[in-house]
Specification:
Length: about 110
Protein backbone atom coordinates (compact mmCIF):
# COMPACT_ATOMS: atom_id res chain seq x y z
CA UNK A 1 0.00 0.00 0.00
CA UNK A 2 1.25 3.46 -0.88
CA UNK A 3 0.60 6.78 0.81
CA UNK A 4 -0.63 9.71 -1.31
CA UNK A 5 2.99 10.94 -1.54
CA UNK A 6 4.02 7.64 -3.19
CA UNK A 7 5.86 6.17 -0.21
CA UNK A 8 5.24 2.47 0.40
CA UNK A 9 3.83 2.15 3.93
CA UNK A 10 2.88 -1.54 4.10
CA UNK A 11 3.59 -4.80 2.31
CA UNK A 12 2.22 -8.30 2.41
CA UNK A 13 4.52 -11.28 2.30
CA UNK A 14 1.68 -13.48 0.99
CA UNK A 15 1.69 -14.57 -2.64
CA UNK A 16 -1.62 -14.52 -4.50
CA UNK A 17 -2.53 -16.62 -7.54
CA UNK A 18 -4.42 -13.83 -9.31
CA UNK A 19 -4.75 -10.07 -9.17
CA UNK A 20 -8.41 -10.50 -8.23
CA UNK A 21 -7.45 -12.63 -5.24
CA UNK A 22 -5.01 -9.95 -4.08
CA UNK A 23 -7.66 -7.24 -4.53
CA UNK A 24 -10.17 -9.26 -2.47
CA UNK A 25 -7.58 -9.67 0.28
CA UNK A 26 -6.97 -5.92 0.31
CA UNK A 27 -10.70 -5.19 0.36
CA UNK A 28 -11.14 -7.52 3.35
CA UNK A 29 -8.33 -5.77 5.17
CA UNK A 30 -9.80 -2.37 4.33
CA UNK A 31 -13.25 -3.38 5.54
CA UNK A 32 -11.85 -4.42 8.92
CA UNK A 33 -9.50 -1.45 9.37
CA UNK A 34 -11.19 -0.24 12.56
CA UNK A 35 -10.54 -3.52 14.38
CA UNK A 36 -6.93 -4.11 13.34
CA UNK A 37 -4.28 -4.61 15.99
CA UNK A 38 -0.59 -4.89 15.36
CA UNK A 39 2.24 -6.62 17.11
CA UNK A 40 5.27 -4.36 17.33
CA UNK A 41 8.47 -6.32 17.33
CA UNK A 42 12.19 -5.72 17.15
CA UNK A 43 13.86 -6.42 13.82
CA UNK A 44 15.67 -9.77 13.84
CA UNK A 45 18.87 -8.82 12.07
CA UNK A 46 19.36 -5.14 12.60
CA UNK A 47 18.25 -2.13 14.53
CA UNK A 48 14.71 -0.92 14.77
CA UNK A 49 11.06 -1.85 15.16
CA UNK A 50 8.40 -3.05 12.73
CA UNK A 51 4.64 -3.46 13.09
CA UNK A 52 2.99 -6.69 11.97
CA UNK A 53 -0.67 -7.61 11.57
CA UNK A 54 -0.74 -11.36 12.22
CA UNK A 55 -2.41 -13.48 9.56
CA UNK A 56 -4.25 -16.75 9.68
CA UNK A 57 -1.32 -18.52 8.06
CA UNK A 58 2.28 -18.66 9.17
CA UNK A 59 2.94 -15.41 7.28
CA UNK A 60 1.83 -12.01 8.56
CA UNK A 61 -1.20 -10.50 6.85
CA UNK A 62 0.58 -7.16 6.45
CA UNK A 63 3.70 -5.55 7.88
CA UNK A 64 5.41 -2.19 7.84
CA UNK A 65 7.52 -1.60 4.77
CA UNK A 66 10.51 -0.50 6.81
CA UNK A 67 11.98 -0.55 10.30
CA UNK A 68 11.61 2.43 12.61
CA UNK A 69 14.34 3.60 14.98
CA UNK A 70 11.98 4.18 17.92
CA UNK A 71 9.15 2.06 19.29
CA UNK A 72 6.84 5.10 19.57
CA UNK A 73 7.52 6.07 15.94
CA UNK A 74 6.56 2.57 14.88
CA UNK A 75 3.30 2.81 16.87
CA UNK A 76 2.47 6.11 15.18
CA UNK A 77 3.26 4.66 11.75
CA UNK A 78 0.77 1.84 12.38
CA UNK A 79 -1.89 4.34 13.45
CA UNK A 80 -1.32 6.34 10.25
CA UNK A 81 -1.56 3.11 8.22
CA UNK A 82 -4.96 2.28 9.75
CA UNK A 83 -6.30 5.78 8.99
CA UNK A 84 -5.00 5.59 5.41
CA UNK A 85 -6.43 2.10 4.96
CA UNK A 86 -9.86 3.16 6.22
CA UNK A 87 -9.91 6.03 3.71
CA UNK A 88 -9.44 3.68 0.74
CA UNK A 89 -12.59 3.38 -1.36
CA UNK A 90 -14.34 0.02 -1.61
CA UNK A 91 -13.20 -1.90 -4.65
CA UNK A 92 -15.50 -2.88 -7.46
CA UNK A 93 -14.21 -6.36 -8.09
CA UNK A 94 -14.76 -8.17 -11.37
CA UNK A 95 -17.13 -11.12 -11.37
CA UNK A 96 -15.51 -14.54 -11.48
CA UNK A 97 -16.15 -16.56 -14.60
CA UNK A 98 -15.24 -20.14 -15.36
CA UNK A 99 -11.96 -18.88 -16.80
CA UNK A 100 -11.28 -16.73 -13.73
CA UNK A 101 -11.45 -12.97 -13.30
CA UNK A 102 -10.71 -10.74 -16.24
CA UNK A 103 -8.82 -7.64 -15.24
CA UNK A 104 -7.53 -4.76 -17.29
CA UNK A 105 -4.35 -3.04 -16.15
CA UNK A 106 -6.49 0.02 -15.40
CA UNK A 107 -8.43 -2.10 -12.85
CA UNK A 108 -5.39 -2.74 -10.67
CA UNK A 109 -4.15 -0.09 -8.27
Amino acid sequence: MKAPNGRVVAVTPAAYETAGEAERGFDGLRAGADGLTARITHVRDGIGWIWVIPGSRTLPEVRSSRAYERYATCQNAFRRFVVLLAKQPALELPELSERGPSLRTSDVR
